[in-house]
User: Which sequence fits this backbone?
């Protein structure tokens, strides 16, 4: 049995969730925040049999898009011979999805 964590963009979370549940998977949705951008994303927890992992990952991948996002970046510049910090925007690619698969020692519903 495996536990899958999937971190997806908040804008894709509805499509990912709808299609996982439509395919019969049990899902827990967590409201999370990316440490780098400090903006909201969504983390799904899905616990299921080993042989289901590929299907689950395919569904997540199908409904998670890659995005370019501009964020402020700290950069040092030299103006008139003086070194000083300046904030210049940088672009990063976010997603489609960050997926972590772990082994589960025990799964219980009490
Ligand atoms: P954030 O931490 O907000 O990161 C958003 C995007 O910023 C990342 O996209 C990546 O392109 C860039 N980025 C993140 N940390 C960086 C760094 N130290 N230096 C330069 N660029 C950096 P993704 O890689 O697609 O990640 C999307 C979200 O997935 C992340 O949001 C974070 O919430 C999660 N994540 C990604 N990798 C992770 C990891 N190894 N462990 C835990 N969470 C992770």
Assistant:
């Amino acid at each position: 049995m495996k536990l899958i964590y999937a971190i997806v963009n908040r804008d894709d979370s509805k499509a990912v969730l709808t299609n996982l549940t439509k395919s019969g998977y049990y899902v827990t949705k967590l409201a999370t925040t990316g440490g780098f951008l400090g903006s909201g994303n969504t983390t799904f927890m899905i616990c299921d049999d080993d042989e289901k992992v590929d299907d689950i990952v395919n569904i997540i991948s199908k409904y998670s898009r890659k995005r370019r996002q501009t964020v402020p970046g700290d950069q040092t510049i030299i103006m008139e011979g003086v070194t000083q910090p300046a904030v210049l925007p940088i672009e990063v690619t976010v997603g489609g999805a960050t997926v972590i698969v772990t082994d589960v020692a025990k799964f219980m519903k009490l």
Summary: Helices lie at 13-22, 53-62.
